Model the fold of this input.
Amino acid sequence: MATTALEHELKEMIIETLELEDVTPDDIDPEEPLFVEGLGLDSIDALELGLALQKRYGITLESEAESSRQHFANLKSLASLVESRRQK
Amino acid sequence: MTFRELSERPWREPAPATPIAWLPPENGGPARWLTVGEWHGRIGAWQQRLAGTPNPSGRWRLYEPDPVEFSAALVAIWERGDHVILPADNQPETLRNLSETGIALGQIVPASGSEKAAASGSEKAAASGSEEDAARPFASQPPQWSARPLPEIAVSLYTSGSSGEPQRLDKRFDQLDAELATQALLWPLKGNLVVSQVSHQHIYGLLFSILRPLCEGSPFSAQPCRYPETLRTWLQSCRDEELRMVLVSAPPALSRLPETPGWAPVSGALDTIYSSGAPLSRDASDQIEACLGTSVHEVYGSSETGGIGWRVQQRGSTWTPFPGVEVDQDADSRLWLRSRHLESPDRWQRQADLIVLTDDGFELLGRTDRIVKIGGKRISLTAMDRALAQLPGVERAQTLPLQRRDLRLAAIIQLAPEALPHDHAQHREMVKHLRRALAARFETPALPRYWRFVSHWPTNAQGKLSADIRQRLFQDLDDRRAPRWLGECALEDGWQITLEVPERCAYVDGHFDGHPVLPGMTLVHWAMQQARRLFALTADFAGLERLRFPQPLLPGDRFVLTLRLRQDASHQGDAGASLRLECDSHRGKHVTGRVSLVSRPTFDSKPSRDGAHAE
Done:
């Protein structure tokens, strides 16, 4: 399945922000979990990603729902969060 | 509010209508209070469950992330006069190692479960998602208060010992009470709401987020607060309800606080911030003060020692010992401690911490053992090295902390020749395999992030894996133009250097057309750099001869660069030299040819390892 430009951008953001030195954008399956089983990200990475989304896209996560962080489940859900909430 | 020691059983006293736990706002609804009466009902429920569970040892292993259930279970066990063991985490191996130590209670879930909950932020899932308790929710009951004495040991904690083996630490009530009394005197909670971002399975969270509120009659949050956006909403809610919040936090959360949107509208609801687990950087401390308008009180201590000292960095970097704690230093800068928080309060005891005494306290220099803090949790590198070295194919392993933003671990792994990864996919597989093997025992943030697979243990001339070799192994992290260096060996007439193409290498072309490759000329450039260092070469590049690039290297490829320096008789005039270079990977040859050099190189009789700057 084709990766959208935004998905590619997010892949690069994840790799850069979290310094995943041995991961290439192709290694990130848009449907695969980002945390633990899939890419192996952890709770510190979740905080880093939140910060990066805020800096890059001006997205403020709301606690109105734990659902904010459910957007972190995989790349696809992250991309739809950015699409719907980006300020820049 | 007055302070009551645990030995006075402060949990029995308050009137049933007194609010004890704050249920944060959810789905647009307001926050609510859980009363002492309701909480007592939970104690009664746990008492009934304990009474119905045969346990001749009287020992209970409690892992329960929900603060209300945790505190109720703790009190129920104490009221029986039984012994509580608190595992540091719920990793399968931790639980297996402790399986002889009593009956398990609370949320004991597979390793992935806790992280999944944390990652998805589903606090509800974390609070009540235990599959273990089919019987849950077990019904509230009136508690039974008896005259049975409290147990001799209040809690047993497990922490990484310097030997790498988990170490059991027993805390008596008088030790905990001494510490709780000190905190109450120094920083009274004054009825403020205690919100925690740390685990109460560890001493700091246990004391600050559960026991202090109980002893000082302050309410605590019924849920942990994991994320900055949750903190903002809760602060907003506190402001609306005219509550003031005491935040029990740690560097991982505090150093990743977004600056925008500004915190000013809600920060007035914040009374105090505590941080412990690891030192907070000065930058993070200043940023929090600027954002939240409250400075951070950092607490320094450990599971063994309890609290040792505290500081507010805006007033200085030195730590002030807590009242009742005496600190000294020996000739080796080792910390000596005499403290009411220790098992033997009258004896001076030597610690693994290194300090230097100052006029008004002490500075921390580090530790003498291989214990590091990652994400605020203590990790024994000795234990991790041992776990890695036991895996099939691993001949030798050493983990080391890399100071990159926060602490992350790196690992140098010597593999059997047949296990060495040759390309990106094999490297990824090996990393996944090793991380998975460690995951049973270590929490995800502790797993090494940077891996270097070597075929021979890289050492200097003295046989040591020295600081400069470590630096060379990880140089590509800081320099996007550098290859990943994995070792080298001298040949009779040259050098063989093992390298990898870093996936994020700045020279890699073609990311966007989906066929990234390393340009051949980059290899020549890398060869020149290595030659300058290894042959103490001062000569310059003059041209290329018979250079062939049979096939390109791909990101992640492991390859061997063979360099031979030759005086070249075929050269006319002032005899030049040339560098013969070959590059091989498991897929075949990538470069053959020569680089001619303009001026005479200088040779050391032995090739120098620091040739780049040799005269």
